[in-house]
Design a protein that fits this description.
The protein is mainly α and 162 residues long. The protein contains seven helices and four strands; from the N terminus they run αααββαββααα. Helix 2 crosses helix 4.
């Protein structure tokens, strides 16, 4: 009888170990445009020198808490403006396709994406049809020293400098 009880106990323990992770599993996500991106932005801004730079170089005495008045809409602080931008970073979703760079590959083929195939397929008829490295997307540089034609990004470094 002892052998049967011990064996049954072992089977129940095994069943418990297999069943519990399945029963208790929940969806997990490592990022979220509406929650994680803004929190990462706040963390990054707080550990960067942006607050000091705004105060020293641009004479914004409140630094990242300086309230700006946009052409349209309500006044917003520099920090909240950056948070809003981080929420919009992946809008539309196809835009996220240009976030990454593989430094081991040539610039023109160094784009890396984590978008699933069905999202990439849905992006086929958009300006985001081709996966580009974030370096190429943001700067138009096609090699460490050679600049190429526009990559379809109206907010690249050249546009920002106008």
């Amino acid at each position: 009888m002892s052998f049967t009880v011990d064996r049954l106990s072992g089977v129940l323990h095994l069943l418990f170990l297999v069943a519990m992770p399945i029963l208790l599993a929940t969806e997990a996500s490592s990022f979220d445009d509406q929650d994680t991106h803004p929190r990462l932005t706040v963390s990054g801004v707080r550990v960067s020198g942006l607050d000091s730079l705004l105060k020293a170089e641009l004479r914004m005495v409140d630094g990242i808490e300086t309230v700006l008045q946009p052409a349209a809409g309500k006044p917003v602080s520099v920090l909240r403006l950056l948070q809003g931008g981080s929420r919009l970073e992946d809008a539309p979703p196809c835009r996220a396709r240009n976030h990454f760079h593989n430094p081991l590959r040539p610039f023109t083929s160094s784009g890396v994406t984590d978008l699933p195939f069905f999202v990439r397929d849905a992006c086929a008829d958009t300006p985001f049809a081709v996966t580009r490295s974030n370096v190429l997307w943001g700067t138009r540089f096609v090699s460490p020293v050679e600049k190429g034609p526009g990559a379809g990004n109206p907010f690249d470094w050249d546009a920002a400098r106008l």
